[in-house]
Amino acid sequence: MEYLFDIFLIAIGAALINNFVFYYFVGICPFIGVSRQVDMAVGMGSAVTFVMIIAVFISWTVTSLVLVQGAPVSSWVAGFFMSSEQAAKIDLTILAYIVYIFSISSSVQFVEMYMRKFYPPLYKSFGVFLPLITTNCAILFACLTVMSKVVGVENPAEAWDLGRALVLGIFGGLGFTIAIVIMAGIREELDLCDIPVPFRGAAITLIVGGIIAMAFMGFTGVDSGIRTALM
Amino acid sequence: MSKLPTPSERFIQGILPENPVYRQLLGLCPTLAVTNGLKPALTMAVAVGLVLLCANVIVSLIRDLLKPHLRIVIFTLTIATFVTIVDQVLSAYMYQMSKTLGPYIPLIIVNCIIICRCEVCASRQGPLAAAGDAVGQSLGFGLALASIAAVREILGTGMLLGIPMLPAAWPPWVIMVLPPGAFLTFGLLLAGVNWIRAWRTNRPQRGN
After folding, report:
1. Which residues of B touch A28 (CB under 8 A)?
2. Which residue of B has its CA nearest to A134?
3. DSSP string across A37-71
4. How far is A102 from A105, CA to CA, in rounded Å?
5. Are β-strands B159-160 and B163-164 bridged in parallel, bridged antiparallel, or unpaired?
6. What is the pLDDT of residues A26-85, one digit of tens each?
7. B29/A25 Cβ within 8 A
8. DSSP per residue over B144-168, as a string?
9. Residues A84-138: tens digit of each pLDDT
10. What would the 3-class secondary structure string for A88-100 be?
């Protein structure tokens, strides 16, 4: 029960309260660039969600099995060269950024090739966005969030397990999709408006984004409210 | 193939005519996220500048070895290496600042400015042009960040770097240091830049 509750809070936290776009400002580039039509926004959003799930899965696995101090794989490998006490002290978190970027971009490349070969319709609907979002800040941000919950946690029982990490990935991606679809809907209507010339394009998009961000600020405190209501 | 700009042209272009934030709309993540105060914004600009300079020079030195389909991966790995260095230095000497900037330092890896400069300039020109380009672009980036941060900090807290700028009766606009303020400030400044640019190009030429 406690666990499910925790999962629920992570989910609404990632999707609404601390929305990736409106609260952390990650993934702004596609938010400005691709949010012209609703169907393209849906494709982009589902591609980001998909990659984010893969990315948090990889980053959680790599971090807790290889990178973190006393991780099973690194201390097992190092056990061949040194005493087991020394091996348990090995801390590879300094390599985290390079490992994340490399593993995410290669796995996404692989998924893209697989999809193009075996699921052409799916590839058509969102596969074309996949190479674009390998280097999207939202993806790396999700990995870093997972890393901050696994590395350097004082109480080992509080470190995130794979389930929590995956929930963060799914709902973070969902929050991004919500944001970009809302924006695309508004921009389709904006095309019919008479906007002052200097504001056309990115400027008006940013201002509309600011107004939506104010609306999303209304979710602040929802998590602690739910916590007091249920506990 | 048209003639590529010289190092000094690259340098000049980066600051205003091809400003990475206002003209090319690149690197918007840190632009919006760390500009709630002038100090984090300047630190961010210096960090991005260092990474950009190192990455640009390295990419430019190895440009003949790059294979087209692998180049983006090489760029990202080069950048990730330097970002790790900057991150370690920052948490060693400016611990509080590295806590404030949080995940936005590692996010420099996927900052589009750096990948774009590696692609546009460093993978085609020599180290000197690449270095000039990097310094120019970082100055432009720092200028843009500082302009947004100054507006947000003055309106949001009434102070700039701890010095009171506005009369004490001024109510601080808290919204300006919160996320929506970033979107609004940048949107308005961007419109302002567009307007000035349109005005300068359309201005009737006076004989002189």
Report:
1. 28-29, 32
2. B110
3. SHHHHHHHHHHHHHHHHHHHHHHHHHIIIIISTT-
4. 5
5. antiparallel
6. 888 777 777 778 888 888 888 888 888 888 898 888 888 888 777 778 778 877 887 777
7. yes
8. HHHHHHHHHHHHHHSEETTEE-S-T
9. 777 777 778 788 888 888 888 887 777 778 878 887 877 776 666 666 676 678 8
10. HCCCCHHHHHHHH
- Single-letter code of the amino acid located at A82: M
> Which of A145, A204, A213 lies closest to B179 in CB terms?
A213
CA neighbours closer than 13 Å in the CB half-sphere of residue B173: 16
Q: Compute the distance between CA of residue A92 and CA of residue A67 in angstroms, rounded to an integer.
A: 5
* Tokens coding A52: 């984010």
Residue B4 tokens read as 């590529």
Task: Evaluate whether B137 touches B17 at the Cβ level (below 8 Å).
Answer: no
Phi/psi region, residue A221 (left: phi>0; alpha: psi -120 to 50; beta: rest), is left
Cα distances (Å, whole numbers) of residue A40 to A44, A112, A173, A182, A185: 6, 18, 15, 12, 11
Q: Which two tokens stand for residue B91?
A: 């948490």
Strands (E), chain B: 159-160, 163-164
**Chain B residue with the nearest C-alpha to that of A216:** B180
Across the interface, do A144 and B103 touch by the CB < 8 Å criterion? yes
Pairwise CA distance, residues B98 & B44, whole Å = 10
User: Are A94 and B28 within 8 A, CB to CB?
Assistant: no
Q: Which residues of B touch A102 (CB under 8 A)?
A: 73, 76-77, 80
Option in A141, A202, A214 nearest B103 (CB): A141
Asked whether this complex has an ipTM greater than 0.85, the answer is no
Distance CA B73, CA A76 (A): 30
In the block, residue with structure tokens 């590839």: A123
